[in-house]
Each structure stands twice: as structure tokens, then as C-alpha cells.
Amino acid sequence: xSGVVVLLGPPASGKTTIxxxxxxxxxxxxxWEMTILEQWxxxxxxxxxxxxxxxxLQRDIRSWIELGGARAVIESTGLSDGEFLDALARDMPCFxxxxxxxxxxxxxxxxxxxxxxxxxxxxxxxxxxxxxYERLVLLHRPVDLVIDGDHTLAxxxxxxxxxxIG
Length: 166
Description:
Elements: E1 4-8, H1 15-24, E2 28-29, H2 32-40, H3 43-48, H4 50-65, E3 72-76, H5 82-91, E4 94-100, H6 103-112, H7 123-136, E5 145-148, H8 154-165
Helix pairs in contact: 1-8, 6-7
């Protein structure tokens, strides 16, 4: 198996949880948000250095994908990394699974999830990212599979993705 699975969705759609479930099925998954926090300290420091930090992160992700072996899984909102996703799709097989989640469910998840595992736990900041995602990504980025994140458990979503890839 080669190429990459892109889990696309707004904050709190379940991308990380589904990525973990795919890892349980033999895919390669790595949570890059923790790497960002380890390297840059805070989301604010990453954003302040974005001109250098984002290309460096994308080079690291691409190198990790190209290691080979089981199909890699990455997560994205498709916002600041849209060009990166386009380049991946040009260069290798990409399967994009969009995870749709209602605003109410996303707010519930954000309020109850473990702190410090994501770039931001700020509810207002995540709401802003969601609005940008809905405006710029939701209806504009091609996808191979849409998953109802409100009603599909992560193991079931992972199974749907694995079955769709074949």
C-alpha cells in the first residue's frame, strides 16, 4: 500500500481519533500537532513564524509519507496547507475523506476533549477556523468519501475508509 489518506475536516470533526483508528488497522498515522507544539512552543509562536515553520513542517510530513510501507494518514483543515495537499495529489495516490460534523457536536467535543493535545483549545479560535473552513474548503476541495462525523464512530469511519481504498 502506498500513497496517503487525507482526513479533511474542521476542528473537532474527529480527524485525530479516526487517524488513531486507522493506525489500528495497519495504516501509518502520526499526529503532527504535537510536533508543532514541541518545536514552536505555542500555536502563537508557530503562527508568528509561519513563513518558515509551515514549509518546514510540510517537508517533514512529505518525508514521513515517502518513507514507504503502509499507507500514511494525515489530517488537515485544508486551509493553510491547501497547496501542499494539491502537490501531494499531483505526486502520489491520495484518498481524501472529509469528516463532516455539526457545529453543536464540534462545540461539545471541544469543551470535553483533553487539553494540550491540539494547536488550540480556544473555543472562539476554533469557531473562527471552522467558519474559514466552511467558506474556503468545504465546498471547494474534491473528496473521495464523506463521513457523517456526528453519527459515525471512529472505528466505523476507519473501516469505511479502508473499504473504500480496497
